[in-house]
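Example record

One chain of 203 residues, shown exactly as stored in the release files.
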Amino acid sequence: MEDLLKSVGFEAPDASKYPHEFSGGQRQRIGIARALAVEPKLIICDESVAALDVSIQAQILHLLSSLQRELGMTMIFITHDLGVVSRIADDVAVMYGGQLVETAPTADLFARPQHPYTRGLIDCIPIPGKTKPGAHLGSIPGTIPSLMGALEGCAFAPRCAYAITECRSGKLELTPNSANQSVRCLHPIGGAQSLAVTMEETE
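Predicted structure tokens for this chain:
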């Protein structure tokens, strides 16, 4: 286990310490080392850096990216932070109300968001050098849907400015919209309406 701890940047841990005595970053490194102990081909990271400050987040993300390359494993990273997504992901799957609403390579998703929900999320990101201090950020009106019972149509339809009657009924499939991008939407946003947001601007 000591070798595993060293591989995640944890040098000579004090075995006499209780778990609550370690810092948040140290506890995350210990958790990563424990996951690596079984030599996994897949690691699922669910909000792994959400409770960490920005500098420690960056260290843990760099560590995870390095381990992924070195060990050749697949990583599913679940997060609400699009800045984290832009730094760590090769491909992105956007979910809303339990539905996959868009999938795309990371660069394509940020350059050409197709689903109105994805567009709304990116609109909420402050852009360094462009968003003025005190300026209002984007927001998505409405409330999240109830997940009780069967869901018909698009889960985002009640909050979508583009929704039509057909969006609220029937079964909408995740449909390829380009060679490498798929969207669950009857009238995806694109072309001249797409956002000029780069991955670097979200960091």
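Notes: Residues 118 and 173 are 17 Å apart (CA to CA).
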